[in-house]
Amino acid sequence: MEQYGIYIDGKWIKSTHSETFETKNPTTGEILATFPKGTKEDVRMAIEAAEKALPKWRRTPAPKRGEIILRVAQLMRERKEGLGALVTKEMGKVIVEGKGDVQEAIDFLEYIAGEGRRLLGETTPSELPNKFCMTVRQPIGVVGCITPWNFPIAIPCWKIGAALVAGNTVVFKPSGLTPLCAAKLVELFEEAGLPQGVLNFVTGSGAVVGQEIVENPKIRAISFTGGVQSGIDVYSRAAKLLKPAHLELGGKNPQIIMEDANIELAIEGVLFGAFGTAGQRCTATSRLIVQRDVYDIALERLLERTQALKIGDPLDPETHVGPVISEDQEKKVLNYIQIGIDEGAKLLHGGKKLRGGLYDKGFFIEPTIFEAEHGMRITKEEIFGPVLAVIKANDYEDAVRIANDVDYGLSSSIYTKDVVRAFRAIEDLEVGITYINAPTIGAEVHLPFGGVKNTGNGGREAGTTAIDEFTEIKTVFIDYSNRLQKAQIDEQ
Q1: Rounded distance, CA 411 to CA 322, Å?
Q2: 157 is catalytic
């Protein structure tokens, strides 16, 4: 069993407090490593190191910063198999998805490394003669990155890669459920040649470590991915310091099947969207909205395919669904299943914790399907587990109304062969992401990621927008007229 400290100023050191916590394999209960329960003093040391490293790092040419990030991607590519297995062991997603998590990180780091040769500003004509106007991007300073457990390699890379290439230094707090994946990532940045103090790593609780990161005035911006209530708390605390906080929060994502859809393709999509990663994605398909003319056949095929899913050891390539992340998450999901039953939703499949053999060691919930009425809690609230609510819709307008009538707006999907209806859906669905004839999961790193309503506060990660949350825009005016020119003032 590995024992880790915190990583500050390029060194692994002991925390200022001796208390530790364990990270466990959700499949077997095996203890994988121990980590410190970090303190506010640990965070302050990390901030001090980041402040000390900032002047030299921000002066490092952006293409050189990009080269280090690209080297991290190369190291990850060389070690993809082992890192993917670690994701599966610590988080519980099946092995193909564990390796997919690592591949997404590789893809993003390769993409964002190129931003070192862009960091684009604008040039625009002046209203005055002999005057030049432009904008440049500058780093914000020391930034805090707080990441979740469901993508323990990819999401940290989204944040850290973009922050570093823009010239910031970072204090990084991972989820307490997947700190080992995060520690291995930090080691890769160290091996790639990242200077001391540019990336610092403190484990511990949100109430202690997270709160100090958010409230310390020396941290100039926050990037947070997690639950809505935690996000609201981060946002309100940061606002007291006028500190920008980028939030990526929950989802209640719908897949719509219209009467002209390829039903087999649509069912294949919802199985992956609803039960991939055991439903533990912010983009997971949690609602299937089916037009009434094809409702019965779609439901029949869905149940047939779900019954054939193999639930078990996520390291087994034949397994389709692994465990949920923890006992607390298991209790939450089972509680929502009971809520659905109590509300009168019809339980069609699953609905229970699996028992016997391997199942007794881990947190396995059978993929669960409800036939539900729109408005029930299981159709409105994020569950974050392998639970799908199937809802009947009269027509396209009714399907869109149901899809939009939730507090979230991250991802959406519609299966139809009607190009007109597909383009209408792109306009009508109140979300940040829409898929046509594909499931609600599967974002690509060179496109912006984020949502509307309670899913976030307007920003986007990845793609061309990745550096927006980590840069300040400076406007520059260069007057070479050799005389005083007064904009907006008529000369007499």
Answers
A1: 23
A2: no
Cβ atoms of residues 53 and 196 within 8 Å: yes
Kind and range of the H or E run holding 250: none
Task: Encode pLDDT of 390-444 as tens digits.
Answer: 999 999 999 999 999 999 999 999 999 999 999 999 999 999 999 999 999 999 9
Q: Are 168 and 139 in contact (CB under 8 A)?
A: yes
Report which DSSP code applies to 335: H
Distance CA 369, CA 372 (A): 9
**Residue 390: other Cβ atoms inside 10 A:** 24
Given 282, 366, 382, 469, the catalytic residue: 282
DSSP letter for each residue of 159-172: HHHHHHHTT-EEEE
Candidates 244, 146, 195; CA nearest to 473 is 244
* 248 given a catalytic annotation: yes
Domains in the chain: ranges and CATH: 2-249+456-476 (3.40.605.10), 253-436 (3.40.309.10)
The one catalytic residue in 104, 212, 248, 366 is 248
Strands (E) in 43-93, as ranges, are none
Cα 438 vs. chain centroid, distance in angstroms? 19
Q: What residues contact residue 46 under an 8 Å CB cut-off, 6+ apart? A: 6, 8, 171, 200, 201, 202
